[in-house]
Amino acid sequence: MIRLTRDAIRRWSHTLLHVDDTPRRTAAAFALGVFFGFSPFLGLHTALALSCAFIFDLNRVAVLLGVYANLPWTIAAWYALTTALGAELLHTKIPPGFARQLAELFELSLFHTEFWHGLGVLLRPLLWPYLVGSLIGTTVLALATYPLAVAFVVNERRIHLRRRHSEGDTETPPPHEGRGRSDAAAKR
Q: DSSP letters along 14-81, please?
């Protein structure tokens, strides 16, 4: 699992570094994706993130990389922790026997309405803690992601340029700092 995560991060970082955009815009797109990837809107992550990417004219690849930073083996822990945070902030108590009732539910088939009805009844008291905790957590995470992503992209692009220069590649890369995504975008 660690190897899969490391390989995924390596592929994502390689993709982020080859996005034709300024480091700040690339980082903003990635942070927006992280915001939606860890948001409470399960099942709508991708659609919401891409909609915002189109509205704000951000790079869709960087946004999607941010959305899918919430890996399958972290998602349960993330939502459990942020729901606990929301419950603490809203002074909501976990229903008595919650773990036992949840385990009993998962003995039923996922394809029966009894399972889904029981799950809804069991989770209903935790809806507001889930929403509040997840929104607070994802906002903090996205705000922390932005400066880290800017630093990462700037640093890695410098390393890449030094490597190209030391290998004798004299072609000058397009200047990205302080400019828009392209000359056409800058003229708008």
A: HHHHT-SS-HHHHHHHHHHHHHHHTSS-TT-HHHHHHHHHHHTT--HHHHHHHHTTS-HHHHHHHHHH
